[in-house]
Write a structure and sequence with these properties.
about 350 residues, mainly alpha, disordered C terminus, disordered N terminus
C-alpha cells in the first residue's frame, strides 16, 4: 500500500481463502449450517446499513462512527459464535491461534494509530476556539490574533502523523491473513473460519477507509475481490465500490480532506481570511457575523463528531484486547474457549 498503483490489488496472490468450503473437508451438519447462515445474514445486514443513501452521507464522522460500531458488533458476534459452537481451546489448531494473535496485535496498533489521529484533530479544536474568541471583537489587534490561530490550525491539521503512515504496511499484512488455514478434521472449525473470514474482510475494508481518510491519500485503500459464493459478497462489493470511488473523486478534486466536517471548517476559514486580513470591506456587519457563526457551527460539529468516533475506536480496542487476553488466559490455564470469552465479556463491561 505504499504505492498508489497497489490500491486496486486483490488478495488472491496470498492463497485461496475459499478452500475452507471444499467438499474434501469435513462435512458440516444442517444445524451448524443454520448457525453459519445466521451469522452471515447478520453480517450482510450490517454492511447494508453502511451503504449511504447519498454521497453527502459518505465519509462523514457520523458514517465512520457507524462503521466502527458495526465492526465492534461483528467481532463480538465471533465471540458469541465460539460459545455456540462449544469449541474447546484444546481443539483449536495452532495455526488458528497464531493467526488470531497476530491479527489482534496488528488491530491493536491500528486502533492506537487511529486514536492518536483523532486526538491530534481534537487538539486543533483549541486553535479554532481561540480564533472564534478573538473574532468576537472588531479590533484589528484581535483580528491579527485570530489570523494567527487559524494559521496554526491549518498547519496543525496539515501535518502528518507517523503512526497513520505505518498503517499501510500493517494493512498489507492483514490482507495476507485473509488466506485462511486449511481445516482438515473439524466441522465446527470450518464454520468458525468461514465466519471469521467475513469479519476480517469487513475489518480490512473499514480500517483501510479510515487510514485513507486520515492520511489524505489513496495509497492506503484496499480493493477486496470477494467471491460471490458468500451470501454477503454482493452487498459488500456495492459498499466497497461506492466508498472507494468517492474517496478517489474527492482526492482528484484537490479536496483539503475527504472528511466532510474538516472540509466544512476549512471552507469557513477560507471565507473568513480576507476579512481578517483586511482585504475586503468589513462594514457589512451582518455578513461578517454570519460567516463567524458558520465557523462556530462547523467547529462544534467537528468536535462532537471526533468525540463520538473516539469512543467507538476505544470500544473496538477493548473488544480486541479482551478477546486476545481471554485466549491467552485459556491457553495458560487449560480452560475452554467458552470460559475465556465469558471472562473477556465481563472484563469489557468493567472497562466500559
Amino acid at each position: 500500500m505504499s504505492n498508489a498503483q497497489d490500491a486496486n490489488r486483490s488478495f488472491f496472490s496470498f492463497g485461496n481463502p475459499f478452500r475452507i468450503i471444499s467438499p474434501k473437508g469435513p462435512k458440516i451438519s444442517s444445524q451448524l449450517l443454520l448457525v453459519l447462515h445466521a451469522f452471515e445474514a447478520t453480517l450482510e445486514e450490517r454492511l447494508r446499513k453502511l451503504i449511504p443513501k447519498s454521497k453527502d452521507e459518505m465519509l462523514s464522522l457520523s458514517w465512520m462512527t457507524l462503521a466502527m460500531k458495526a465492526l465492534c458488533e461483528s467481532h463480538n458476534d465471533v465471540k458469541t459464535l465460539i460459545m455456540e459452537l462449544e469449541l474447546p481451546v484444546q481443539d483449536w489448531d495452532e495455526k488458528w491461534i497464531d493467526v488470531y494473535l497476530d491479527i489482534s496485535v496488528k488491530l491493536l496498533y491500528i486502533c492506537i494509530a487511529f486514536s492518536s489521529e483523532l486526538s491530534r484533530l481534537n487538539q486543533g479544536h483549541l486553535l479554532l476556539q481561540c480564533a472564534l474568541h478573538n473574532l468576537g471583537s472588531s479590533s484589528s489587534e484581535q483580528y491579527v490574533r485570530a489570523c494567527s490561530s487559524l494559521d496554526g490550525w491549518k498547519q496543525h491539521i496539515g501535518s502528518g502523523n507517523p503512526r497513520i503512515e505505518k498503517c499501510g504496511n500493517i494493512l498489507d499484512d492483514l490482507l495476507e491473513s485473509l488466506a485462511l488455514p486449511k481445516i482438515k478434521k473439524s466441522a465446527k472449525g470450518k464454520v468458525l473460519m468461514q465466519a471469521m473470514y467475513g469479519v476480517k474482510v469487513q475489518t480490512v475494508f473499514v480500517c483501510s477507509v479510515f487510514a485513507a481518510a486520515f492520511s489524505s491519500t489513496t495509497n492506503n485503500m484496499s480493493h477486496l475481490d470477494v467471491a460471490d459464493i458468500y451470501s454477503w459478497a454482493p452487498t459488500f462489493k456495492r459498499l466497497q465500490d461506492l466508498v472507494n470511488e468517492e474517496i478517489r473523486v474527492r482526492f482528484s478534486r484537490g479536496r483539503f480532506n475527504v472528511l466532510n466536517e474538516l472540509e466544512a471548517v476549512d471552507s469557513s476559514v477560507k471565507e473568513l481570511y480576507p476579512i481578517i486580513q483586511g482585504t475586503v470591506d468589513t462594514n457589512e456587519t451582518e455578513s461578517v457575523v454570519k460567516i463567524i457563526g458558520e465557523l462556530g457551527r462547523t467547529t462544534e460539529k467537528l468536535s462532537q463528531g471526533l468525540d463520538l468516533l473516539t469512543e467507538e475506536v476505544d470500544s473496538f480496542f477493548q473488544v480486541v484486547l479482551t478477546g486476545r487476553d481471554a485466549l491467552l488466559s485459556s491457553l495458560r490455564s487449560g480452560a475452554t474457549v467458552i470460559d475465556s470469552i465469558l471472562l473477556g465479556n465481563r472484563d469489557a463491561q468493567i472497562v466500559n
